[in-house]
Design goal:
Length: about 350
């Protein structure tokens, strides 16, 4: 509830993030940029306790103002944490969202959609986990009589919220990836399958301007994609054919689908790559042995969500390698780790 309220404030995370990396702001500094902030510090403390914000303390004065040195008042200072960056809206996104609806109307619409989605998730789908175990089928499709994606795209506001969330998530991940992963070096053409608006490709090409980018997604998605220098938007169906390039990127795609659909998709990627071309896969990897660290917990949560809401699952390293070999790739390697997600390469020939 607190996180929903923080997002609904429409600027809280942006104010803190806008202070810059390593900067700290007090609740009063933040409140000065909001219309009202009566319980702001309590909200910020809770967000910090869940690692969405960084909190440090500073002693101000001597507490009671009588100068007797009996201890100063403690002022908490807040900064943006890595996880909190997922909730920072890009400036361009804020400008686009402000056009069709005024702020109060947009807020009411989003609250209604959020409440409906919460109802579907908590009271219908997740409440029937027993049925999912016994029946073994996708519970979302059974309950809603439509797939998760059909449900999302049936409502404009839900579609916008979903796309905004995916774009924000990808933005944080890909900015770290380009600092860590060196596999984009030397590429001439990179195809991002399921690339949405093309923002991930734009981040990559900003660092590697010699790359020609192809943003590939469903026709209705790329129709509204913004124009970027060096990026061509192409609409189509990834299960039918994929544009050619010397490298193809699948970012959080495979975990949405079952093994058979993934093999079909990987076969199409293989056909569109030249000899020595590579498929770059960014996805979670499930541990083979029991682990209880935060990364294993998140992967397990995502695995449950994929099983209940979609047709997919999270996979182990061996499962990824098995699919790669079945699709004809001759080499598989796990390259690096970024924010709970792994970057893998499937090589067509060596």
């Amino acid at each position: 509830m607190v996180l929903a309220a923080a997002i609904d404030l429409d600027g809280l995370f942006e104010i803190i993030s806008g202070a810059g990396d390593g900067a700290r702001m007090s609740a009063s500094d933040i409140a000065a940029q909001l219309p009202s902030a009566a319980v702001l510090d309590a909200m910020l403390q809770l967000l910090a306790s869940h690692s969405l914000l960084i909190c440090s303390t500073n002693v101000v004065g001597d507490g009671d103002g009588d100068g007797d040195g009996d201890g100063g008042a403690v002022e908490r200072l807040y900064g943006i944490a890595p996880a909190g960056k997922f909730f920072v809206k890009e400036r361009e996104w804020r400008l686009v969202c402000s056009v069709p609806l005024n702020r109060s109307q947009r807020r009411r619409n989003r609250v209604q959609v959020l409440n409906h989605l919460r109802e579907m998730v908590l009271f219908y789908v997740m409440d029937r986990l027993k049925d999912a175990v016994i029946e073994g089928d996708n519970q979302f499709g059974k309950i809603c009589a439509k797939s998760f994606y059909e449900f999302i795209t049936s409502n404009v506001e839900a579609t916008n919220m979903f796309n905004d969330g995916m774009r924000a998530h990808s933005s944080v991940i890909i900015k770290k990836v380009v600092k860590t992963y060196r596999g984009f070096e030397g590429l001439s053409c990179l195809v991002d399958v399921g690339g949405g608006s093309g923002s991930s490709l734009e981040t990559i090409i900003s660092k590697y301007p010699s790359i020609r980018g192809v943003n590939f997604d469903l026709p209705h998605v790329v129709e509204t994609a913004p124009t970027y220098n060096g990026i061509e938007h192409i609409g189509g169906d990834m299960f039918v054919e994929i544009p050619k390039g010397d490298a193809i990127l699948l970012k959080f795609i495979l975990h949405n689908w079952g093994d058979g659909q993934c093999i079909n998709l990987l076969n199409n990627c293989y056909k569109s790559l030249p000899n020595k071309g590579k498929l770059i896969v960014m996805d979670y990897i499930m541990p083979n042995t029991h682990q209880d660290d935060i990364h294993a917990k998140y992967a397990s949560q995502m695995n449950l969500m994929m099983s209940c809401f979609l047709e997919g699952k999270e996979r182990t390293k061996e499962e990824f390698e098995g699919m790669a070999m079945k699709a004809g790739f001759v080499e598989f390697k796990v390259v690096c780790y970024v924010y709970g997600m792994w970057v893998m390469e499937f090589i067509k020939s060596v």
